[in-house]
Amino acid sequence: MADPTGFLKVKRKEAGNRPVNERICDFSEVEQVLNSDDRMLQASRCMDCGIPFCHWACPVDNLIPEWNDLLYKGDWKKAYERLNQTNNFPEFTGRICPAPCEHACVLNIGEEPVTIRENEVAITEKAFSEGYIKPKPARKKSGKKVAVIGSGPAGMAAADLLNKWGHSVTLFEKDPKAGGLLRYGIPDFKLSKSTIDRRLDLMTFEGLEIRTGTEIGKDIPGKVLLNMYDAVCIAIGAMKPRDLNIEGRNLKGIHFAMDFLKRQNRINDGEILPPSDRISAEGLKVVVLGGGDTGSDCVGTAIRQKAASVTQIEIMPRPPEKRLPANPWPFVAKTLKTSTSHEEGCERLWSVSTLRFIGNDGYLTGLEIEDVEWKNENGKLSMIPLPDTRRIVPADMALLALGFVHPVTEGLVSELGLALDNRNNIRTDECCRTNVTKVFAAGDSVSGASLVVNAIASGRKAAREIDRFLKE
Fold first, then answer.
1. Tens of pLDDT along 379-401?
2. Right CATH for 145-239+405-470 from 2.40.440.10, 3.40.640.10, 3.50.50.60, 3.10.25.10
3. With a threshold of 0.85, does the pTM exceed it?
4. Which residues lie below 8 Å from residue 291, measured CB to CB, with a gap of 6+?
């Protein structure tokens, strides 16, 4: 450790965000960057703890104290090399990860953790700009062929490692461009798609074959694919959205969040959508149902589309501002999260249940809601409606951001007869194997909807198991 007292001399300093009045007029990335000197000073705050709780909390096992020390010393190249040992895509996680490492940082006891996430992306961007990151094709090919189905973070991570290890890998994607949820689900103001393209170009130079616009189970039957490859990794995500089947659900103006977000990302990418295929919030009173990250993304997108107003409804209670005794450090703090989208102008309602959608001539005009109270009895939560709280919230558009229940099982999953667990996710053993010979699965298709960093970790584990299987 270069400076054991750095945390005493240097205060936490974040890069900050672009001004609200500027950023809501475009879809460019919101977060700004610190200059290199300040960034190295921020790295000096890392104490290289005897027990690195940050490392413990990181799903990809990043060697955080090590690359923070290298960053502080100004050795950006070695810092990236150390970072890349555990994370294929630190430019993604450095932008969109909720940073469980920072929650677990010892300095977070005083609520001033090391800026680990920002340090991570700064190291990676410096490595790209300085030319430290170059294609490194495998020196020797194994002669084995692997198909990876789904090009989200799990599929990309698995394909990247397997390709580097000398296998002939084909990455299949049903959409026109690779990236999965990273490209079509996350708004550009959080993750520029040029960042994805840059990494995909690098992987292609290293020999990875990417086939887009190809849906396995439809364009190519799954059983045909099995005969073409020595191993198959399924990383199709958990894209079955949770619905809200209440009165008025069939009214026009009610959309799943991912349909809304995906269309805007396609427009940002230069696609010209026919009017019948567009979902625009311009001039509308928008209500977002769901208080998670997807709901927040809908808020920011609706604001940029010039919505008349945006209201976000969450059925759960408002989280506390500070940690509760039952949620101690070093676990992730279950506290109120205010995103950059919330800062841009949004009314947030907590402990509110939606009873029905109201409409006129087939179009949505409002939602009937009521307040609820949550009771915790013997560890079991129950929801109790509060009397005399029913009211109407005017709305021209409702976006359902209620999460995802499991992977889409129609098509490939059904065709191959893959076993499912009790939540309808693909069942795998400890080696990522499904019940079908030479078929592996990774990411949200196995775990259910989760974080991008968890998907990368899962894809890396699946790659190791597939590599081991191919060498048996």
1. 888 999 999 999 999 999 999 99
2. 3.50.50.60
3. yes
4. 312, 313, 314, 316, 348, 350
